[in-house]
Amino acid sequence: MFNRPGNRVNQQLALLSDRLSEENPALEGIVDPFRMLDRIGYGAGLLDPEEDSYAFTISWWPMIAVLGTFSAGKSTFINDYIGKEVQRSGSQAVDDRFTVISYGSSEKVKELPGLALDGDPRFPFYRVSHEIERLSDGGGRTVDHFLAMKTVRADRLRGRILIDSPGFDADEQRATILQLTDHIIDLSDLVLVFFDARHPEPGAMRDTLEHLVNRVAARNDFTKLVFVLNMIDTTWREDNLEEVVSAWQRAVVRQGNATGRFYCLYNKGAAVEIGDDKVRTRYEHKASRDREEIHAKIAEISSSRSYRIVGAMQAIAESIEMDVRPALQSAMARWRRNVVRADVVLMAIVLALVVWGAQALTGGFAPWFDGTMLETVGDRPVISVLAVVLLLVVLAGIHFINRGWVARRVARSLPEESSSGNWRAAFRKNTVFWRSIFRRSPVGLGRRSLRQLHDLRDQVEGFVQRLNNQFMDEEAPVAGMTASGARGSVGEAEQPAREEAGDAVGPEEQRSQG
Fold this sequence. Notes:
Oligomer: single chain
Order of helices and strands: HHEHEEHHEEHEHEHEHHHHHHHHH
Number of strands: 8
Low-confidence stretches: 475-514
């Protein structure tokens, strides 16, 4: 009865299931195993049935974040990729919010407030309003000051989400913007970092480099960053693209990132006129090839995200069995041990006081042994019974006070937030007053729940096989890439900038450099 989701959670899961059926048929039906996992979480106290679901803790669509300084061509790239004018573009900062761009049913671009993201678990930034309020120190700023959402019917948005960022120039919102950027990098499958080739000296943007590069260089997923040097058409007069790329590469390497390759782009519709036909041909070839590689990377992440979702469900199930259950058993053992110790000490003190008081009233211990005490008790049965009841109430009160006090202390050692739920709340569910302290199995995590967790692992294998069949049968080489193919693309991304920029340098320059 209490292990079922509330109406709101049920509706959100139904909407999620419908959208997956439309945009990612390979994951159709996966919401049902998450419902089963939720019931275990509700029963164990790890989740709140009215608010939570394990399905709300992951991002269901591949996310591509487009970051960089203002006027670096981020919006122009997004419009070109989607094939529609979704974002405003210009030489000055035109957006001061993160814009989440998603697939919609209308051919026209629809703009929604940030609240649409904060209240919908299908999208990133679910329940981010409290964090925004904390980061911005109140000040009356809401989620709508920092986030917006746009939807449009476009094939390249089907099954993925794009995020366009504001520029990183100093303003009153900069601290919050940078914190949200960290959150986006964590969630994203691919991060495109745009820089403006019109500023060949990267020293002026050292703080931006430090935040976007140095903060993620030590992470295991730093390879998901792709550096894009945009508007390379502005370098045609000097014909020094190689030097510009090398300067940016050195700046990135100094920040601790060894994968310093830059993709070079420019948009023909917004480009300056390149007066030299040979230079224009080289630049067009370079930009076209790099653009195709970036589009291929975006296409690749659809399959990896599907596997990641299935893997997340398996990881949660394993965490409940391997991490949560032992941690709760250990916490319950400490709680039980400390409650018994506290009971023994305090109850011994109370009983000692009772004995001392009784002997004082009877004039010593002699009446206790010669039968006088029993006669007195028999003569006053009501008072005697009330005294015994009062003593039992005091002892019971001591026990339950100890239970609560020790439980609060032990609970502080358990996390409130984790991928498997609220461990602290689950522990408290085991310490309610009607539950014996000598129960060793955590509530909701008995043998039946363990069997259900094992069944979920079997279902995970079925979904993995379904994904394998889909992606192996697809003819598109990007969707059918193997793990080794994916590593190959990363390896290509790690080639030095000099090699990549070489195509944009003419034969005469190459001979002279040799």
